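To: structure subgroup
Subject: Chain for Friday's discussion

All,

I'm putting the inputs and outputs inline so they're searchable in the archive.
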Amino acid sequence: MRIAMIGTGYVGLVSGACLSEFGHQIICVDKDPAKIATLTQGGIPIYEPGLVEIVAANAKSGRLSFTTDLKEAVSNAEVIFIGVGTPSRRGDGHADLTYVYAAAEEIAKALTGYTVIVTKSTVPVGTSRAIEKIIKATRPDAQFDMASNPEFLREGSAIEDFRRPDRVVIGCDTERARDVMREVYRPLFLNETPILFTGRETSELIKYAANAFLATKITFINEMADICEKVGGDVQDVARGIGLDGRIGKKFLNAGPGYGGSCFPKDTLALIRTASELGAPSRIVEAVVAVNDRRKLDMAKKIEAAFGGVKGKTIAVLGLTFKPNTDDMRDAPSLVILPYLQEAGATIRAFDPEGHKEAAKHLTLTYCSNAYEALTGADGVVLLTEWNEFRALDLPRAKAALKSPVMVDLRNVYRPAQMAEAGFQYVSVGRSS
């Protein structure tokens, strides 16, 4: 099939590349000439494991191409995906749909025949109907159907998530649109992937409900961690104990410094605003957002206490991104925790395997080339993001590099007994130190 993907950000680029692997002819469109030039020359503007290889292979085969010319891409397409950004709008937390609506107007002007227009971006309930109105107002003669097809890609695991998803959700109103979307995802039908067809509003809400529920699980286990610290419990055992219940499940029950990233923070806020305007406020999600915001500040104070105050001290920080296997710094806990420590008088020496470039846009730190360089001469270390290379540090070497053997492990990577044996003053989350 001939498919146009509007937007080459995280969602658009990953989705376009993976759809080209399915055998479709994909044209990815972006207004940024520099980004398109980079992609055309084989460069990738984001870090996602495996994406470089998929883009290169499918571009070489001729199935994947990039352009700034939306009109050309759209005029020949059977399906058009809108995968542009929907950041939180300043001031009120609503999803900013400026880019979505602008893309809709441009698409309308370029349509030449029957097309299915699909919202891939995460958008509030009712957005698909609003896009439909824009297109009909711009081009009353246009022949098209609308569909909603939210993405459920985890940064760092996006390629595998697209190839082998838990489910594909498609919201549309006509059988003709359903037939087109079945063809788009035909390889997944062969793999017996569950394909859920719903109405458009239901599809849009599924995305927000899923992210809000996962954010709630993370926030819940973080509160249980606080209780564990008060009573001498072990939050990891609590997580195992409840996670073995099939009704709960073990995923997203890792205590830590709070959630961040491109999805959970903005999607929970957008759901709160939408629910409030509809007269059906979501009190649970409101509490989740408030607790998570507070969590990051609490973790900064936890670090300060573990060091007996940080004024005049040098702290090594391992990991800056909101999670491993990505360079994404959006709403990362480090963006709250490290400025707090600096304001309290600390000097920060940091290492992140992929996040330095993005982190430098937000944080003025001493950036090091590896973990042990960051540790050298520091008064202690904070493990902030659980990259694999931080899971098996040479503990004697790490201790020798530090002025003081202090480690604050906000991801519970190490075992308290192991760290005590290695001679560290060790502080983790929801466990006895």
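Points worth raising on Friday:
The chain has three domains: 2-198, 208-290, 297-427.
The radius of gyration is 23 Å.

D.
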